[in-house]
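User: Predict structure, ligand MGD.
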Amino acid sequence: MSELVEIKKCICGHCEKQCGILVHVKGDTIVKTEGNREHPLSKGYQCERQRMAIEWLNHPDQLMYPLKRVGERGEGRWQRVTWDDAMGEIGQKLIKIRERYGAEALLMNEGTTRGNDHWLHHRFRNLFGSPNLIGSGSVCAMNQNAMSFALVGDPVWGYASDLENTNCAILWGSNPPVSWQRWWVEIIKSKQKRAMKLIVIDPRCSKAAERADLWLQLRPATDGALALGMLNVVINEGLYDKEFVKKWTIGFEKLKERVQEYPVEKVAQITRVSPEKIIQAARMFATARPACICYGVATDQIGRNGTVLEHTRVCLRAITGNIDVPGGEPILRPGEKMQNGGVFVTESELALFDKLPPEQRKKQLGYDVKNINRLLSIRSHEITSGPIEKAYGVAAPSSFRFNSPTSMAWPAIIEGKPYPIKALLCYASNMLAWVGPTQKVYEAFKSPNLELFVVTDFFMQPTAMLADYFLPGASWMERFTCINYLDFGSLVIGGDRAIPPRGERKDLYEFFRELGHATGQGEYWPWRTLEEVSEYRLKPMGITFRELIDKMVIFPPSMVPEFKWKKYEEVGFATRSGKVELYSSVLEDLGCDPLPYYEEAGEGPVSTPEVAKEYPLILCAGGNHMPFYHSEWMQSGLGSRKKHPDPVMTIHPETAQNLGINEGDWAYIETRRGRIKQKAVFDPTILSDVILVQAGWWYPEKPSKEPSLGGVWESNANVLVLDDLDACDRLSGGFQIRGLLCKVYKA
Ligand SMILES: Nc1nc2c(c(=O)[nH]1)N[C@H]1C(S)=C(S)[C@@H](COP(=O)(O)OP(=O)(O)OC[C@H]3O[C@@H](n4cnc5c(=O)[nH]c(N)nc54)[C@H](O)[C@@H]3O)O[C@H]1N2
Ligand SMILES: Nc1nc2c(c(=O)[nH]1)N[C@H]1C(S)=C(S)[C@@H](COP(=O)(O)OP(=O)(O)OC[C@H]3O[C@@H](n4cnc5c(=O)[nH]c(N)nc54)[C@H](O)[C@@H]3O)O[C@H]1N2
Ligand code: SF4
Ligand SMILES: [Mo]
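Assistant: Predicted complex:
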């Protein structure tokens, strides 16, 4: 083994932030990781997970070889097989299933993006012929993205807010000191440097709210009403950018009429936020200009009204003139010509959406179901694609633009309704932990009607415990990175791999390439490795992958030396009208209300008072904890688990006292769906009838088989959630996670 220490420029994949990390390698051993100060985007930032990256990689539970189930699903008996044998068998089964039931009988499930992976599964699925994909996106950002595309033609949902130059930022159901620490650093800097105003909307005084100039403590899941109340103030007090509205929007008068239905007094009653505070927030946001509303996930998880809320937020951003201006929401597009005139090959081009036959598209679960998933259907994708392609000059982004409601997947597997789903491919996702109710997901996985269930992951997590095949994945330290971040913009990010994959682990590129080869798609997967495909993508730009890794990031001309703002003045917006459609023609075509509105969540104290009698508390089944990442980092022995050995439920001390619960006690949390237990932590700032439970919890130290399944039933928040179609988000199909009804008692 070489004694020399080599330093590799890598991109961390422990979450979606893509920080540049220097990995010190001796032979095939990683000896140290540190934030890369020269990285143009992360500038040396690293979070506490980096301190544990090596122990994570060396954890004895990391799996190194493909496994095939022997015995029943969940029995925990596995046989080691080769990749060739596993892929050969999986490929044959998929081909047979397609012959017997049609390509739509394949359902794919993706987890949170880590960068490289999106076009891969789209390409495989489109070539296979299935329109069916489920993913966390329907309760995480994808819905907001879709609303942005419908109204503006570009994503302006606050994922890239210009915090450095803003005078006012709203954190809406978002707690960046825990969830987005790199943003939080920028927010604090802007507060110090330019006295930026911070508004936080949260039912408890979160870490972010502690630093807020204005904290709006609302009843969970009433965010849609609050937003309309704020819009009412902005419009009626004339606080909007009149010139922008006149020149660049359509439907303002209709919107104005609609918001009259939401006077602040009425909104105050719904939300429990005082009229004075609603007015103050609206004025602060509208007059501070420039201002932005950052992304937060809480509102994607309130069921029914979640995505409609984003309609109102886009209106707020647009009419106050905060789109594509410094300090507002920048517009970033893929497909821009680089300095040499060449274009980085985009995700959408590689995704080959045009290979999915029109008759197959229409079969998508939720393609055309009234009141559900409209905006995340392939139909919506088709409607919005024309103007986008015209404006962008490349295929419309398909990554992150459509999927099916999870609640439609389970009946398709279990009962064959509306048609049978027979195969499930799950990559980088732990469905038993992320989607609910867990009981339904479990029933689907155990169904004899599911003929093939494949999982690729690092660990034997609960979902994998029920699979037929397990394929071991290569982590960020074991693979290369070459991305333009899901076609959000034209900048290209590259990263080295620190060490070759351990054991027989393979990256997702190889996973999908091998699946492609096993199902007759070989000609479409000519590049043997991620390095080769990266060279192909970079070739038009006239640089090699090595050069990219060295440079770390390549920016398109519109970003250097200075970011080019107000691009719409030259090219218009990428909608049919070329304007921001406050009154949405896309929603109208989809048969939805073209204007924003408010309705109560499917379950809650107002919509289901009869349930509230037995389940009097309002449950929010989520809220992040560092360094956990969803269901990851729970393995015992890791620093993360030592720091947080148990799952925690946040509750008001008086509410707990009335229930005879002391701080640190185990408590049961029960809804109509089921019950779990977590440890009580007191927070005097949370609304007294609201509790917050930690999501993603399982116990990797418990048996990896039935009935325990890694303890996934004990403390997993998704045992509690609701996915009745009528309670799901009307536009995204997302199930209801926040604003539910529960009762709590001592365990
Ligand atoms: N109750 C409740 N449910 C929620 C949420 C909530 O707040 N509350 N949040 C929702 C949100 S925002 C999201 S994004 C989802 C998250 O849902 P998921 O993205 O499915 O997250 P996890 O459940 O942690 O599963 C990720 C799995 O992928 C594996 N993995 C990670 N990277 C790779 C890779 O490169 N290759 C391979 N082969 N495997 C990999 C990890 O080991 C892990 O087991 O959960 C959603 N569900
Ligand atoms: N440590 C850590 N960081 C993460 C992740 C992780 O798993 N762990 N996951 C990443 C991912 S994929 C995502 S999507 C983000 C999500 O991160 P965030 O957007 O910050 O969302 P959460 O942390 O789920 O919740 C934020 C706040 O929402 C509040 N909240 C609960 N219900 C409601 C409601 O009805 N309305 C409003 N307005 N607020 C409510 C909670 O009190 C909480 O303070 O985090 C990312 N970062
Ligand atoms: S896990 Fe931490 S270091 Fe890695 S990308 Fe995310 S924030 Fe950056
Ligand atoms: Mo997420």
